[in-house]
Amino acid sequence: MKRLTDNRGFWLLVIICCVTLIPFLGLADFHTKGEPREAVVAYSMLESGDWILPRNNGGEIPYKPPFFHWSVAACSAVTGGVVDEFTSRLPSALALMVMTLAGYLFYTRRKGMQTGLLTAFVTLTAFELHRAGANCRVDMVLTALTVCALYLFYRYYERGLRGVPWLAILLMSCATLTKGPVGSLIPCLAFGVFLLLRGVNFFKAFGLLAAWGLASFILPLCWYYAAWLHGGQEFLDLVMEENFGRMTNTMSYDSCVNPWYYNLITLVGGYVPWILLVILSLFSLPKIRKGLNRMTNKPGGDLARASVLSRCLTKMREADAVDIFSAVCIFVIFLFYCFPQSKRSVYLMPIYPFIAYFLARYMIYLVKVKSKSIKIYGTVLAVVSLLVTATLVLIKADVIPTTIFHGRHAAQNIAMMESIGAVAGWSWILVAIPVILALAWLWYLNRHPQYNVSYLYGLCVLTFGLYLALDGAYQPQVLNVKSQRPVAAEIDAIAPQTSGTLYEFIEEGEMAAGDPVHFFELDFYLGDRIENFRKSNPDSGYLIITDLDAEKWLPKFEAEGYRFTHLYDSSRPVLKRTASLYSFTRP
Predict the structure, then answer these.
(1) pLDDT tens across 157-182, in order?
(2) pLDDT tens per residue across span 545-557
(3) CA distance readout (Å), 117 to 143, 351, 356, 434, 546
(4) Cβ contacts of 459 within 8 Å, gap of 6 or more
(5) What pTM value is reported for the model?
(6) In three state form, how does the secondary structure of 354-390 look?
(7) CB 137 within 8 A of CB 35
(8) Close Cβ partners of 582 (under 8 Å, ≥ 6 residues apart)
(9) Which of 47, 116, 379, 482 is deepest in the core (most CB within 10 A)?
(10) Contact, 93 vs 100, CB < 8 A?
(11) How far apart are CA 414 and CA 113, in angstroms?
(12) Residue 565 bridge partners (DSSP)
């Protein structure tokens, strides 16, 4: 790695990003409500030609601004005009790649290639980011735009705050068009705090960031005005609910309500597997603390007699600017998302690249102090790689009985295990990769017992191997068991588009104060042709309804003059129930 130049390191990282992300995006079907909900917006844009506020899911307007959906539609248009799993996830994957590469360039130019490359590797393999980078959701794109805007703001600081940070403003505009004003607020807030800690005059910092923040709203306001012309009061109510209501805890319905410590728990979980290394290294904490004490100069004289706050501010102004900038971004963004009641793990993703920087430096330090945690952690990864593959072999050999599963989800768990056992073809190459890397790691430990930085790159390679097997072989087999694509195909065979209109009725969706429930997966795989039964008040067609709702509501509909004929029950759970298809008429 010593011979690897910054430029070659960049292209190596490009290749790694492409190999570990792009090939697997389309292998897993949609299996949650979130992905098809976003994908169908892009689908309706291409189908209707309405790129401002398209209606979908039976007449619903999108809950998020359109930049992400524009990106999905653009990727789909380039690849043939069809919105599918691959094209709908591609913008998120590209966003993760760009953010990873930007982080490499940012830290390499300021802290050296070793730190920059490790920061990029940790960023790319943090579980929360890796998962979001293979999802059709707005969060990864928002995260990349936010983080890259912060990097550009730091360059603006290095230039002495001269000129106009046009590219940072543009990225904040795109972030606002991805998920609302938070896309501009967070970069301005974090960078503003950093400027104050570096001694910049409050009024100067406030004035500059207010100007750049307002400038970033120019493009989004154009869309908001056009969307208001399309959606009227319904659109305005949604904007107030999703933005101001969510941040001020005044929403008309509960949405991901969690306590403040939820953020800590999800942050720990989101940094799997690297959090294990941190935990293992704590056993050598006294040795690390001793080393830190030797490296730290204790304050004396007037500084020792100064107040705690004064000493902290002085140290921050004298400390390394990159360290302070990264720490401020972590602290401000984390604190910002502690106040709203609505909390999700993906909200914290903008702090992950900055944590990766400190983790990279910590890993380098562990090598310098010869911490055994490095070798132990790598061996744990190697053992996990071998055990996972051994489990697959046992499943293929029918050694593990299906009788180990009990309870309500037993049938689905059995189906998942059988699906894993059906791994075949080129997937075996992916299954073999972590095994080969695990054996190579154990061999390297035996041949090179002396601590060196190559150990750290070995940990990254082991992690990449596990992700390759997970994303390419195991995960699609498991997740496709949960997909409703086969149900949609069966419904389409019974009730094709030429024979009549499909409608849905879901009591939970009809009664919800906001964020209504729909058959999102079925609607996407059926080409966004499911209408709302109560809103449309049709005289004939087909109705999709769960068995529980059918038992309660069909007698009421029959009292209104409807006549129903049962045609089909779903072969897989839909909204955790059996979905039924009826034809109906109203004389």
Answers:
(1) 999 999 999 999 999 999 999 999 99
(2) 999 999 999 999 9
(3) 20, 18, 11, 21, 51
(4) 277, 363, 374, 377, 378, 381
(5) 0.93
(6) HHHHHHHHHHHHHHHCCCCHHHHHHHHHHHHHHHHHH
(7) yes
(8) 542, 543, 545, 550, 554, 564, 565, 566, 567
(9) 116
(10) no
(11) 47
(12) 583
Q: Which of 297-306, 354-363, 502-511 has the highest mean pLDDT?
A: 354-363
% residues pLDDT > 90 (the chain): 77
pLDDT at 3 over 60: no
Q: What are the tokens at 117?
A: 């490359």
Phi and psi torsions of 269, nearest 5°? -65, -35
pLDDT at 372: 92
Nearest to 52 by CA among 223, 217, 237, 236: 223
CB distance 386 to 466 below 8 Å: no
Contact 92, 137 (CB under 8 A): yes
Q: At what angle do helices 166-179 and 139-158 cross, to 10 degrees?
A: 160
pLDDT at residue 286, as a whole number: 62
- The pLDDT assigned to 295 comes to 47
For residues 456 and 410, the answer to whether their CB atoms sit within 8 Å is no
Eight-class DSSP state of 448: -
Q: Is the pLDDT of residue 341 over 90?
A: no
- CA 271, 272, 273, 279 dihedral sign is positive
Which strands sit side by side in the sheet containing 563-569, from one edge to the other? 530-532, 502-505, 540-546, 579-585, 563-569
**What is the rounded (10 degree) CA torsion for 345, 327, 321, 371?**
-100
The model's confidence at residue 2, banded by pLDDT at 50, 70 and 90, is: very low
Cα 482 to Cα 469: distance, rounded to the nearest angstrom:
20
Tens digits of residue pLDDT in 477-531 = 999 999 999 999 999 999 999 999 999 999 988 877 677 889 999 999 999 999 9
Instruction: Output the CA torsion sign for 367, 369, 371, 375.
Output: positive
Distance of CA 99 to the CA centre of its chain: 13
- Per-residue tokens: 433: 């990769």
- Give the count of alpha carbons within 13 A of 11, CB side only: 4
Number of Cβ within 10 Å of residue 456's Cβ equals 24
Check if the beta carbon of residue 349 is closer than 8 Å to that of residue 139: yes
What's residue 379's pLDDT?
97
Residues 6+ apart with CB under 8 A from 232: none
Q: Say if CB 123 and CB 136 are below 8 A apart.
A: no
Q: Span 418-436, mean pLDDT? A: 93
Q: Are 212 and 188 in contact (CB under 8 A)?
A: yes
For the chain, the domains span 6-368, 373-483, 487-585
Among 556, 498, 486, which residue's Cα sits nearest to residue 522? Answer: 486
Per the structure block, which two tokens stand in for 98? 């760009």
Return the structure tokens found at 150. 């912060």
